[in-house]
Write a structure and sequence with these properties.
The complex is a heterotrimer of chains A (390), B (326) and C (290). With 390 residues, chain A is of the alpha/beta class. In chain A, 45% of the residues lie in helices and 17% in strands. Chain A contains 13 helices and 14 strands. The longest helix of chain A has 24 residues. Chain B is mainly α. Chain B contains 15 helices and two strands. A two-stranded antiparallel ribbon of chain B has the order 1-2. Chain C folds into two domains: 186 residues, no CATH class; 74 residues, no CATH class. Chain C contains eleven helices and two strands. The N and C termini of chain C lie far apart (45 Å). The chains are: A alpha/beta (390), B mainly alpha (326), C mainly alpha (290). Chains A and B meet through helix 1, helix 3 and helix 4 of A and helix 1, helix 2, helix 12 and helix 14 of B.
Chain lengths: 390, 326, 290
């Protein structure tokens, strides 16, 4: 038995080694980018949209003759929503696929895991959907840059609307998930809200929670008028439904993921008047953005989500960096650390720690079945108070 | 009987030498010019093997299924990062990690090992959730944001350590299951009532074994903590690691020393191949392999292959059951 | 705490507890009769949830009709799996049988993840509105869940207590050998128990889809709570599981109100370990023969 097991171990090792040689032998003329995305597992819904954004970007660049005449190729693997798999894939993308730089994965833990590997290997990465600024706060990352508006400002837009509109309302409840991004956003919002003269209460819940009835009872008991929910999409929908069921009608209700088109599907007519915040909107009126939306619709047959736009923007940021400094890792890093690059999300620019400070969120609100931007110039007037649940 | 002991001794000797040689060769990889991708694969193979052997030592030998080994490894990872950040030396930190996991296992062991296997399985299953909830609530453990190892160690260090833990654990299982106590434990797995009738304190043996197994899991998790250097509670205490800890030995052959080695190689290989061929079906296929192995090979691939070969060697002689188990 | 608030929290806890009870009932039934901890039980809940989702969104059928449909689908799938897979492991060591259902759970999770991606889905069709009783407010969807759980739960207990096949199930739960010796068709009884339990799980999934969101792990998460309840209720005891489920639902509602849901869960698990240590046969259980 001993004998046989050992032989089969060696056998499969040899098989793995030979596949390598074949792949390595291929020439690398195009500029190669690598990505590890959570195509299966917890984050697969959003990761799919990110993938579409990357592929569309590569296609568009190649249709226009590539970057400095070289075509672009994106190698994508599935990290199953697991950081450990992300670590292996980082090595695989660098060693086997010889990629020049990494387009970011979906979730914070995986971004963090890959960033550690890339610091060692000195390879640049853009954290495409990494809204979670704590990745850059918990340690100094020199090679990874935030490519998405920072989550610290999740409640900012709603607070601005309250400042403008909510004269009579004083009691605000902030609901947060016990996850780093959500806690950081709450910690940012609490002092700002107090400054505004509001009475604020914060309620935490366990990741994965489905039952918010007890939090709702507490809000009712303390006379809450305005609610800002800073958690993921699924708990936000659960919370909303349970608020409807309980007949709890706040004057204004905001949840950070509300601008997503699927919200209407989940809530039906009840979506009227719900505030959200948006990193990007298909309606943004710039030529570059219009071209992106049109190309996406032509390819996938629907309006892109912000995930796809952020993915497209990450590609554009790399493109800008390469056009400025050439297809070289150190040069790309330098450009991402200091330059301003125009993308569909706005102006890419990072601070000393690599955190994004060029992109900002806009406030949105559902009005008559459509999510509109209600902050900034040429925005619609917000609906206040929110109509009662029907 | 004498002959049997002699053959056993020879098996232990040759087996140990083979394990030591493999361990040394794998540990030397960072200096042999292989790419970091291959090194990473070998590292993960060793990681899963170490975890699988830790599980094997308890569950493979006693038949009491543990779902806690991922959580125990997580406790080790947390302990080592906290200890290293407090400027304790590496060896002491690793030791603390092993002890922390061992202590945690006592909670489960003492509450549930007097009972039937099902109670133990449930008790281990819930540990995962309980530890995750507690870690998120404890400020010194970094709360929901997790903790970061302040010093990033060179990769060869966790690589060598992990290979050593995996090799050591394999050696331990090889020697232990042929020792006097090991044979008693195997007897207990097959018939607990009879075993206690001949004077084995089943509960005590199980608690000690589970504690040792947990210490190895803690050590494994600690080394991985050094490798990963950044811990998020939701990832460290996810059920996935516990699944790997039991899938690796079960696919290869639970209760044997070499089964988990085969299981780890198959698992890592399968994962890499499916990554390219069918990324969406990875979980499903691991499940199907596990199901087929349990239904049709009973004690795993390694023993099944062993039987196949021995039958050929002896031209159709049916091996005795005891031999098949060994 | 005011009395209306007390009543409201009690009602909220009851809804969660009732749903949990239906899932736990199935786990206890399978454990008692087939002697298997069905780790795949959660995946059958997910199956019911997705089936209802598809029926509602693709065929425009009311989610209320989705509940019996999910039950029938679950029972059929359950019977098939028991006959084709789980029964093959009958009589094998505990580890083997556990791993069979565990492998099924991984397979199910993998299938749902790849077929439906990790998307969170929900629909707005079906009953909507609010029902008020005194000061207590309950959504019509939650009320539906409560009523269906009551009907299904009582129905199942009647089947087990009052029918011939129920007698066979109870005999089997007490002693396998004697039941076989009395001429009970053991494989048939096991098949029935498994199909019934999986049907219940799928029906529970339909109810989950009505008040929650649907995703590939929805059942997986719920069944962990069901296991807690089954241990607390005394393993294999159907009545114990139901009572423990409702108790846990209510206690959690109050603890979440007073502290938060993390502490509520921590308390539940501590209670669980204390129960294992002090009353290994459950809070309500008596020592029933092996």
């Amino acid at each position: 038995m001993t004998h046989l097991s050992r032989r089969s171990v060696l056998g499969s090792a040899a098989a793995v080694a030979s596949t390598f040689a074949v792949v390595k032998a291929r020439a690398a003329d195009p500029i190669k980018f690598g990505a590890s995305l959570s195509l299966t597992g917890r984050f697969s819904d959003s990761a799919k949209y990110v993938q579409e954004g990357y592929l569309l970007w590569a296609e568009q660049v190649n249709a226009k003759g590539g970057i400095k005449g070289r075509p672009v190729e994106v190698v994508i693997y599935d990290d199953e929503s697991k950081p450990d798999t992300g670590r292996v894939l980082a090595e695989r993308l660098l060693d086997r696929d010889n990629v020049l730089a990494i387009l970011g994965p979906y979730s914070s833990p995986i971004t963090d895991a890959m960033a550690t590997a890339l610091e060692r290997a000195q390879v640049p990465m853009i954290g495409t959907i990494a809204s979670d600024s704590s990745i850059w706060a918990r340690r100094r990352l020199r090679w990874t840059f935030q490519g998405f508006p920072s989550s610290d400002f999740d409640h900012e837009g709603f607070l601005k609307v309250i400042k403008e509109k909510g004269q009579g309302s004083k009691k605000l409840a902030i609901i947060f998930e016990e996850a780093p991004f959500s806690i950081a956003a709450k910690d940012w919002a609490l002092p700002v809200a107090k400054e505004m003269g509001l009475t604020v209460e914060a309620f935490g819940y366990n990741p994965g929670a489905q039952d918010f009835r007890s939090i709702i009872e507490r809000m009712i008991a303390s006379g809450t008028e305005m609610v800002s929910m800073g958690g993921y999409y699924q708990p936000s929908i659960a919370l909303t439904r349970q608020m409807i069921e309980r007949g709890f009608n706040p004057v204004a209700f905001h949840f950070i993921q509300a601008a997503d088109g699927v919200t209407k599907e989940a809530l039906g007519a009840q979506v009227e008047g719900v505030f959200g915040r948006s990193s990007w909107e298909a309606t943004i009126d710039t030529p570059a953005n219009k071209a992106f939306v049109a190309a996406y619709q032509a390819k996938y047959g629907r309006i892109p989500s912000y995930h796809s736009a952020a993915a497209f923007a990450a590609g554009q940021a790399f493109q800008g960096a390469i056009e400025e400094k050439g297809a070289d890792r150190a040069g790309i890093r330098e450009a991402l650390a200091s330059s301003k690059i125009e993308t569909v999300l706005g102006t890419f620019h990072t601070n000393q720690r690599g955190q994004q400070d060029g992109y900002h969120y806009a406030s949105t609100q559902w009005q008559g079945g459509t999510s509109y931007v209600v902050s900034g110039p040429s925005a619609r007037a917000p609906l206040w108070p929110k109509p009662k649940w029907s | 009987m004498k002959v049997e002991r002699g053959r056993d001794l020879a098996k232990i000797t040759w087996g140990s030498l083979a394990i030591l040689a493999c361990t040394a060769a794998m540990a030397a990889l960072p200096w042999l010019g292989v790419t970091s991708y291959v090194r990473t694969l070998v590292y993960y193979g060793a990681y899963f093997l170490a975890l699988g052997q830790a599980w094997n030592l308890m569950s493979g030998l006693t038949g009491y299924v543990s779902f806690a080994h991922g959580a125990l490894a997580g406790i080790g990872a947390y302990a080592v990062v906290l200890a290293l950040n407090a400027d304790l030396p590496m060896v002491i930190s690793l030791l603390i990690a092993a002890i922390a996991a061992g202590l945690a296992s006592l909670i489960i062991g003492v509450t549930s090992l007097r009972l039937k296997g099902t109670s133990f399985t449930f008790a281990t299953l819930f540990l995962q959730e309980l530890v995750l909830l507690l870690v998120r609530k404890l400020p010194f453990a970094g709360g929901p944001g997790g903790i970061v190892l302040e010093e990033i160690f060179p990769l060869w260090l966790p690589h060598v350590l992990m290979i050593a833990v995996a090799g050591g654990a394999t050696l331990l299982v090889l020697v232990f299951r042929r020792s006097r106590t090991g044979l008693r434990v195997l007897a207990m797995r097959d018939d607990e009532a009879a075993a206690s009738a001949i004077g084995i304190d089943a509960t005590r043996v199980k608690i000690v074994l589970f504690c040792a197994s947990a210490a190895i899991a803690g050590l494994t998790g600690a080394v991985h903590g050094v490798f990963a250097s950044s811990l998020f509670p939701n990832e460290v205490f996810s059920i996935d690691l516990s699944i790997i800890a039991l899938a690796v030995p079960l696919i290869g052959g639970a209760g044997t020393a070499l089964g988990p080695v085969l299981g780890a190689v198959i698992y890592v290989g399968l994962r890499e191949i499916l990554q390219v061929l069918a990324p969406n079906l990875h979980l499903t296929i691991v499940g199907v392999v596990l199901l087929l192995v349990i239904l049709f090979m009973r004690d795993g691939i390694a023993p099944a292959l062993g039987r196949l070969f021995r039958l050929k060697d002896r031209r159709g002689q049916v091996p005795a059951i005891a031999e098949v188990r060994a | 705490m005011t009395f209306p608030l007390f009543l409201q929290l009690l009602t909220n806890g009851l809804v969660v507890g009732a749903l949990l009870a239906i899932v736990a009932l199935g786990v206890a039934l399978i454990f008692g009769v087939v002697r298997v901890v069905n780790f795949a039980h959660g995946e059958f809940v997910t199956l019911g949830a997705f089936a209802t989702y598809l029926v509602v969104t693709q065929l425009n059928i009311s989610p209320l009709l989705g509940i019996p449909l999910a039950f029938v689908l679950g029972a059929a799938v359950g019977a098939g799996i028991q006959a084709a897979i789980v029964s093959r492991a009958a009589g094998r060591p505990e580890l083997d049988v556990l791993m069979v259902t565990y492998a099924l759970s991984i397979i199910g999770l993998g299938i749902f993840s790849s077929a439906f991606s990790g998307d969170f889905r929900s629909y707005s069709e079906g009953p909507s509105g609010i029902f008020t009783l005194g000061s207590v407010v309950i959504g019509l969807r939650s009320l539906t869940v409560l009523l269906v759980c009551l009907i299904v739960g009582v129905g199942t207990i009647l089947v087990v207590q009052r029918t011939r096949i129920g007698l066979a199930l109870r005999a089997l739960a007490q002693s396998r050998d004697s039941a076989a010796a009395c001429g009970i068709n053991v494989p048939a009884a096991e098949l029935f128990a498994f199909a019934l339990a999986v049907g219940l799980a799928a029906a529970a999934g339909a109810l989950v889809s009505l008040i929650g969101t649907i995703h590939p792990r929805v059942g997986h998460d719920l069944v962990l709570d069901a296991f807690v309840v089954v241990v607390l209720g005394g393993m294999g005891s159907i009545g114990g599981a139901v009572l423990a489920a409702i108790a846990i639902g209510i206690v959690n509602a109050f603890t979440s109100f007073a502290l938060d849901d993390s502490w509520a869960r921590i308390l539940t698990y501590c209670l669980l370990y204390a129960t294992l240590l002090l009353r290994p046969h459950g809070l309500l259980g008596r020592h029933v023969g092996a």
